[in-house]
UniProtKB/TrEMBL annotation:
UniProt region (Disordered), positions on chain: 1-79
Basic and acidic residues bias: start-end ranges: 67-79
Lineage of origin: Bacteria, Bacillati, Actinomycetota, Actinomycetes, Micromonosporales
Domain of life of the native organism: Bacteria
Bias kind Basic residues: ranges: 1-19
Biased composition (Acidic residues): 38-53
Transmembrane regions listed in the UniProt entry: none
Name used for this protein in its record: DUF3073 domain-containing protein
Pfam families per the UniProt record, alphabetical: DUF3073
InterPro entries: DUF3073 (IPR021426)
Length: 79
């Protein structure tokens, strides 16, 4: 039963954070996080297609002569 007061406090804090913007010093945050502000250039693009092997098997079962399921296949049989 004692959770009501704690929940009210959390709601109050969440509402304050949502509707009131704090005075954030972004330069201090940037220094604290140790970033220089430049984009990360370590990502290397490759032209390798990682799905080449998968594509070889993707059409398996497409050329079969299986009939399409019809509505009467799903309905119970009439007696």
């Amino acid at each position: 039963m004692g959770r009501g007061r704690a929940k009210a406090k959390q709601t109050k804090v969440a509402r304050r954070l949502k509707y009131h913007s704090p005075n954030t010093d972004f330069s201090a945050l940037q220094q604290e996080l140790g970033t220089d502000g430049a984009a990360d250039d370590e990502y290397e693009e490759t032209d390798d297609d990682e799905f080449v092997e998968v594509d070889a098997y993707a059409d398996v079962g497409q050329d079969t002569d299986e009939r399409d399921p019809r509505e009467e296949d799903w309905l119970p049989r009439k007696r």
